[in-house]
Write a structure and sequence with these properties.
Distance between the termini: 78 Å
CATH superfamily of the largest domain: HUPs
CATH class of the largest domain: Alpha Beta
CATH topology of the largest domain: Rossmann fold
Radius of gyration: 25 Å
Helix content: 40-55%
Structural class: alpha+beta
Strand order of the largest sheet: 3-2-1-4-6-5
Number of strands: 21
Strand content: 15-25%
Largest sheet: 6 strands, mixed
Length: 481
Amino acid sequence: MKATLVDSEVLRVDLVAQLIKTNQRYQMFEQGDSIVVGVSGGPDSLALLHALLTLRESWGLRLVAVHVHHGLRGAAADADAAFVRLFCLNHEVPFYLFEADISALAKASGTSFEMEGRKFRYEAFDQVALEEGCAKIAVAQNLNDQCETVLMRLFRGSGLKGLGGILPVRDGRIIRPLIEVPRTAIEAYCSLNELEPRVDHTNMEADYERNRIRLEVIPLLESHFNPRLADTLARTAELFREDERLLDRVTQEAYELIRLPSAGASVHEAGMSLKTFPAYEPALKRRLIRHLAREACGGVLTDFSQAHTDAVLELAMLHEGSKSLQLGVVEAERVYDVLWMRRLGAERLDDSEAAPGLKCAQCVESPLVWEVLVEPITHEQWLMRRGNSNGIAVDLDLIQGTLRVRYREAGDRFKPFGMKESKKLKRFMIDEKIPEAKRHKIPLVCDENRIIWVYGYRMSEEVRVGQSTVRIGWLTLRRVE
């Protein structure tokens, strides 16, 4: 019995110590941060919340719990919600409950239950983060989840980005402090601390792909090939992520050499020269095509498959003439030695769309003119536009004077969204891995005294929409000849 207690104590210390180590490695949260924690009531999320509670006082953390009821499992799901609510009440953690019939939502949208559930959960997290002023959202994926994800993507067929698995930090906000902690350590931690988490018995049914991999494939691989499979695949995924970051930089640098200014008045169009394109390696060609499609879609690319990429590659390698294709969300058109892509359904803007009462300034980059447009929107409209990278929402009452667009100047400083202190714009661009050759070309939306948006990258913390916001403005840019 004494040896068991010692072992449990080691596991308890290891989990919290590993959480701190992971946080230091990926810079997930800082002293004094406010964090939304997704809590289902299962072992992973309950251990995550409890471990963060052990750090709450020493780190000065403010924790807010969010539980999502998916409208499935009847009384068991009701009991899950009641359990998490009581746990939060006993530990003085603010608690939010969201309920939805995810099955009905998935049927209506034509997506899977898992995808619709994930979408709903993150919308709930975002809403609470906004209302509570939290810069971070913590979710409880662990080392074994990483192993399952890498295998799933390998079996489906994926490139480096997919094989990089679950990102420890996404968009600077979504953090996964337990991503390097094995499930066995989490279960031991719960047992030692008498947490008695809820158990979702559907996780033990081999009806879903992930469950089959967890229950059947991984035990087989561990038994016959590698008993430390999860650790091995996690290290491999990290190597893939490092390679992906390098190739992203190489692609960006190559793209800057061949990119062309937009041919029209819509920002949802991008072009590149094909004169030197045939000399590139096939892998770089495919990455350049996806990069072009992503720029045409405003920075977020979905519904653009490997088959679409190959079709555009074939179009780009034509020896002469002009041709166009419609592929997923974009149209690709070759005009002699130029490849254009534009987002299907993108509407062109005109001056009448500018909001009354706010001026739209211009900045000339011959032969182009940048304009910033401001559209007053309601709180509900803003919630619907979350995740839209084509614009940003700002508190209009925090804007000082007239908006204008310029390029970087010596000594520029900027306070990125989610950060407490400002930093040199040069440092920000280095941290964002923006190639030096591109930095002077990035439009900066400014008011009279400061930068409020580094276009295509990050808005300023100083004009973020908050609980006290009365007037919300939706800012977009457009390029015109």
